């Protein structure tokens, strides 16, 4: 009986980890984020650690959208530059209350940003 409980506990932990880890961002220190508005071409460079943390949290605390998606052009291209100079480009759609992100290499899989993180991103511009 004890082995069954241990197995169930381990399985629960693995399932929880799988549901909360989108693997959009590698677990590396971030040096800079370049945010480009695809509508008007405006580019913003984010280097402040607190602002970087807002984006890091937003892009790691996402929920995978079930099914295949087909959507319009992204609002922003978000490129994470890590301290080892690796780059990770991602796409972001953002409204006042909702958001979605996507890895351009996996363009049929989207991830919802939670409302709290959408508000946190908007707070950076206010």
Can you walk me through this structure?
Residues 28-124 form the YhfM-like domain. It comes from Salirhabdus euzebyi. Keywords: Signal. Pfam families: YhfM. This is YhfM-like domain-containing protein. The structure is a single chain. This protein has a single domain (2-123), classed as Immunoglobulin-like. The chain has helices at residues 2-20, 49-60, 115-123; strands spanning 30-37, 43-46, 62-64, 76-82, 87-94, 99-102, 111-113. It is built from three helices and seven strands, in the order αββαβββββα. Mean pLDDT is 85; it is low at 3-20. It is of the alpha+beta class and 126 residues long. Strand 1 (30-37) and strand 2 form a beta hairpin. The radius of gyration is 17 Å and the shape is globular. It has a seven-stranded antiparallel sheet with strand order 2-1-4-5-6-7-3. The longest helix is centred in the N-terminal third of the chain and has 19 residues, at 2-20.
| Structural domain count | 1
Q: Percent of residues in helical segments? A: 25-40%
Helix/strand order? HEEHEEEEEH
Overall form: globular
Q: How many helices in DSSP terms? A: 3
Let me know the average pLDDT.
85
Q: What do we call the CATH topology?
A: Immunoglobulin-like
How many E strands? Answer: 7
């Amino acid at each position: 009986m004890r082995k069954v409980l241990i197995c169930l506990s381990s399985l629960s932990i693995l399932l929880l980890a799988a549901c909360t880890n989108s693997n959009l961002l590698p677990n590396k220190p971030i040096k800079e984020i370049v945010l480009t508005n695809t509508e008007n071409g405006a580019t913003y460079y984010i280097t402040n650690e607190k602002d970087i943390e807002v984006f890091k949290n937003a892009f790691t605390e996402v929920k995978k959208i079930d099914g295949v998606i087909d959507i319009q052009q992204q609002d922003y291209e978000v490129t994470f530059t890590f301290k080892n100079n690796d780059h990770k480009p991602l796409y972001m759609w953002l409204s006042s209350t909702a958001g979605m992100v996507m890895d351009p290499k996996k363009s049929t899989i989207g991830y919802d940003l939670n409302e709290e993180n959408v508000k946190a991103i908007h707070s950076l511009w206010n």
